[in-house]
Design brief:
The chain has 461 residues and is of the alpha/beta class. It has helices at 80-91, 96-112, 138-150, 182-199, 215-228, 242-252, 256-263, 280-288, 297-302, 310-315, 332-347, 361-377, 407-416, 443-459, and strands at residues 4-12, 15-24, 30-34, 44-45, 50-52, 54-59, 115-122, 153-160, 202-203, 206-207, 234-237, 270-273, 292-295, 319-322, 392-395, 424-429, 432-436, 439-440. Bound molecules: N-carbamimidoyl-L-glutamic acid and zinc ion. The site of zinc ion (ZN) has 6 residues, from loops.
Length: 461
């Protein structure tokens, strides 16, 4: 097996470097990243610039199968909440085989689109009637198997979900498959830990939102997780919709991010997914907590959530990364594009995402999103440096949008001026090529199984 790759250009944590030799060990961990190197006889040579693989920090895999199917008027004024009603209807019919087929295709798509790992925020736990499966871990294990089959890095975040609104409102019918006690969640984590360890996956916990998890349960679940793994990742949906901010204020007198910072041990283990609606104090305190802001730009646009104030978060040194969430779009470059464009539209400026260190927007955003995504994943996938996993993407220097350009402009063209995945040549995870000439080995069979699963789910509608 090849354990070296030579690249004329590579994006290292400190910026672009020339003539880089990447070396890794049998475990898929980078052992050396040497710039200004000589091509080694026998080393494979990359077909274009090498960039770090992007961690996808937020996914609900099953939602891929109804992407595109809610883009029609269902109510006088559609919203996140009317979308959610349709999503619940779809989730109600899902079986373990559907889950595995959908996730297998989705994860192959992610690899082809520049993601090398994914955090799965997994909340459909029970059967269609809301009863636990004979093996309570059935649906989580289906996702883990899908990830292993296609070779994407994995962080499993089983979701705690107990109430339908602030102040302990009972769950509704559409939520029956999600609900579990704190004790049963801790038992599920115990069951999943050895399976995740054996698969090289990380196990964390996701309290769904402050709407869905009362304060006592939040405290007990985190204590239980800490007993299992003191540094495990903790993800939560926090302030996506203005209605949830208003409801939180009515319940507690505080906005959700402020409430969380005052009542939970928020630190670098945490990922605040959709921290969309914060006031100035929340931007400052949230960023300084060390938590990662989990941005899902295309989903947030698709659902009409609002615009995150990216410069404010960065001004306070906040970590951030991207997720594809509902998977209306599955493409790492496109999330960066949408993030940048939302800022341009909101602020009437250009190149908002550039930084003092990196004037090229795509370069700056890629490096920061990889770093934050790795932190949120709880795995050593933070870029092209010794000790990190050998997860990287080779751009296709022969692609029309890239031909003849300097490396930073090639990445800019990949993000801003190509037909999305078409500029990706190869994707490596843990030192193994999973995508070659733009294609995953399981592309065809996984796509066919996905379409069959989706057709079956739609028939049962
Ligand atoms: C989810 N998705 O859990 O899939 C949520 C919708 C909710 C997003 N927040 C459900 N985008 O938040 O209640
Ligand atoms: Zn989500």
């Amino acid at each position: 097996m090849t354990r070296t790759l030579f690249a004329t250009d590579a994006l290292l944590p400190g910026g672009w470097a020339k003539n880089v030799l990447l070396s890794w060990n049998d475990a898929g961990q980078l052992t050396q990243v040497q710039s200004s190197a000589q091509p080694v006889a026998g080393a494979q040579v990359a077909n274009g610039p090498v960039i770090p693989g992007m961690p996808n920090l937020h996914s609900h895999a099953f939602q891929r199968a109804f992407a595109g199917l809610t883009e029609h008027r269902a109510e006088q004024q559609d919203s996140f909440w009317s979308w959610r009603t349709l999503m619940y209807r779809f989730a109600a019919r899902l079986g373990p085989q559907h889950m595995e087929a959908i996730a297998t295709w989705l994860y192959a798509e992610m690899l082809e689109a520049g993601y090398t790992s994914v955090c799965e925020f997994q909340y459909v736990h029970h059967d269609a009637d809301g009863r636990p499966y004979a093996d309570d871990a059935t649906l989580s294990l289906a996702l883990l198997r899908a990830a292993q089959k296609v070779g994407i890095g994995f962080t499993l975040l089983p979701v705690l979900y107990q109430t339908s609104g602030f102040g302990g409102q009972p769950p509704n019918e559409g939520q029956r498959r999600f609900i579990r006690s704190t004790d049963s969640m801790l038992r599920l984590l115990d069951t999943l830990k050895p399976a995740c360890d054996a698969a090289g996956a990380r196990l964390g916990l996701a309290p769904h939102s402050l709407r869905a998890v009362p304060p006592d349960a939040l405290r007990e679940a985190i204590a239980g997780l800490e007993a299992l793994d003191r540094s495990a990742p903790i993800h939560i949906h926090i302030a996506e919709q203005t209605k949830e901010v208003d409801d939180c204020v009515a319940w507690s007198g505080q906005r959700p991010v402020a409430w969380l910072l005052d009542h939970a041990p928020v630190d670098a283990r945490w990922c605040l997914v959709h921290a969309t609606h914060m006031d100035a104090a929340e931007y400052a305190r949230g960023a300084k907590s060390g938590a990662v802001a989990g941005l899902c730009p295309t989903t947030e646009a698709n659902l009409g959530d609002g615009i995150f104030d990216f410069p404010a978060w960065r001004h306070h040194g906040g970590a951030w990364g991207v997720g594809s969430d509902s998977h209306a779009t599955v493409n790492a470059a496109e999330e960066l594009l949408m993030l940048e464009y939302s800022q341009r539209l909101g602020k009437r400026q250009r190149n908002v995402g550039a930084s003092a260190a990196q004037p090229h927007v795509a370069t700056a955003l890629t490096l920061e999103a990889v770093r934050g995504g790795a932190q949120a994943s709880g795995r050593a996938i933070g870029g092209l440096a010794a000790g990190q996993q050998a997860d990287f993407v080779v751009l296709d220097a022969a692609q029309l949008a890239l031909q003849g350009l300097a490396a930073p402009d090639m990445l800019s063209s990949h993000v801003f001026a190509s037909h999305r995945t078409s500029a990706i040549d190869a994707v490596w995870v843990s030192g193994r090529p999973r995508v070659v000439a733009g294609r995953h080995a399981l592309h065809q069979e996984a796509a066919a199984a996905f379409v069959a699963a989706r057709s079956q789910l739609l028939l049962e509608n």
